[in-house]
Amino acid sequence: MSEEELIKQWFEAFTEKYMRQIEQTVYHRVRNQAWVEDVIQDVYYRVWRYRKKMRLMERKPVEIYLRNIIRSAISDFYKNKDSQLILNSDILSFHSKTCGGAYTQPEHHIILQEYLKILEELSRQEKDILVMRILYNMGYKEIGAMYHIKETAARKRYERAIRKIRKKVKEIFPT
């Protein structure tokens, strides 16, 4: 058998053995079936990319390496989804009691631009935590698990990001 055939057999055995674990882990973290499939595809792509290295590992290191691949695929997905959501989300329809109506007037655009500038001043992790907490309704425990921090640390980082936003909003839009 050639090297490529052995690698293909290993990959088939790997997917058969770990497919259920990968799907459950990703679904538990993402919870949206359409997005789950995208993340799983990315996980399999990464496994295929590192197939030669993983094939030579023992069982336990492979499982640890797989967990790292899954975690980084989910994290990268949320980072990419974050930028897509800002552009394609309900922010652009921008309904508000004070503004009355949809996002059509120039002052709405100015307000939106100011909020996006405020978000740009946050660190990558703070933005990710805000997105996971607000848009995906993830708990502090789940967020902490993704960043390998305690639940209370995740909550504190979320609260710190909210305080930063409030402070900047008060500077820009004094009441």
Automatic annotation (TrEMBL):
Q: Which domain of life is it from?
A: Bacteria
Q: Which UniProt keywords apply?
A: DNA-binding, Sigma factor, Transcription, Transcription regulation
* Record domain RNA polymerase sigma-70 region: where: 16-82, 119-167
Give a GO molecular function annotation for the protein. Answer: sigma factor activity
According to the UniProt entry, the coiled-coil residues are none
Specify whether Transcription regulation is a keyword of the entry. Answer: yes
- Cross-referenced SUPFAM superfamilies: Sigma2 domain of RNA polymerase sigma factors, Sigma3 and sigma4 domains of RNA polymerase sigma factors
Q: Which Pfam families match?
A: Sigma70_r2, Sigma70_r4
Protein family per UniProt: Belongs to the sigma-70 factor family. ECF subfamily.
Q: What is this protein called?
A: RNA polymerase sigma-70 factor (ECF subfamily)
Species per Swiss-Prot/TrEMBL record: Catenibacillus scindens
